[in-house]
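Let us practice reading a record.
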Amino acid sequence: MSKHIETTCVQGGYTPGNGEPRQIPIIQSTTFKYDTSEDMGKLFDLEASGYFYTRLQNPTNDFVAAKIAALEGGTAAMLTSSGQAASFFSVFNLASAGDHVVASSTIYGGTYNLFAVTMKRMGIDFTFVSPDCTDEELEAAFRPNTKAVFGETIANPALVVLDIERFAKAAHAHGVPLIIDNTFATPVNCRPIEWGADIVVHSTTKYMDGHGAAVGGCIVDSGKFDWMAHAEKFPGLCTPDESYHGITYVTKFGNGAAYITKATAQLMRDFGAIQAPQNAFLLNLGLESLHVRMARHCENGLAVAKYLSQSDMVDWVRYPDLPGDKYYELAQKYLPNGSCGVVSFGVKGGRKAAENFMKHLRIAAIETHVADARTCCLHPASATHRQMNDEELRNCGILPELVRFSCGIENADDLIADIDQALAANR
């Protein structure tokens, strides 16, 4: 029986049996007992399903991952310790030293640094292209050793809406998957798989959790990419894994489960970036109200964006649902029910004016956080993106006066009044 996304938010991923707990149980255990070595051996050989060590898998996590997979329309998913871990795993599961990845230049600053600096040290090269590049420029970014394309549904904090279909078409023409970070939109407002994405990642710390309670991430596989059709590009999936008893993941698990199984058996085994079961439990509580909260976040975001667009103390406003915004048409296509609660704007007067504005806020808190039930704001150039030089900042759509204002689920009139008095301090 197919369910609407609202019902999946509340009840997906876990169905209790007779007399079992109604809420997902927290399996707070590192290990699991078996009667015989043969029983456990079947798990290590991937011949049976089950659990032997929480560094790889845990039942609580798997219940929640199954819910997120259902929300995104995927076939398999895994939770990670953070959104950064999810982004790293999603790419490293496909690429290794000597390989290449194409990525949108406006992705979150932490992800940009992960790709451009840390993974570059690992021998993986990245080409960053503008999300607004021409088809010719996008085509030119690919190389024979390209293994994936990476982008964000809504860029953080530039609020660029990616043309998912166009990037998916280019990726597939070169025999590689499109990976989409869907953190800001969430599956309530956009399901990238329906537009051609093959893998979806989330920082579940943001809207999915929604209450600033637990750091986490998630990777969802669509199950639609035909790995064997491009076997020469993906030997890790299509040839025997000698570190895991010679298993060929696609042969044994098919397109629907090979990618996530490999990420679990190899990457989670070796890196151990597992989400704590307690955090997964808290994440599930957030997911149960995601569909309700996202509507309010978007309502508040649009109200604040409209107010800011009329203020003489603001140079510019970026919000995809604001008529006249550069990405308004793409937002109407991919995000017809709303985009997110985050508004980016430039305070008139530059960096110092932006910093002074934030000092005078009373309801919105200055935090290295976003997409929370409580309104918060940040000056990215001096915080999340401070490692970038001016040219890199411009390429990511970040200007010195940019303030990222994340509307919570409070009353919109109160948020606007708070902004109004803080802007007045700059007069």
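A brief commentary: The chain has a mean pLDDT of 94.
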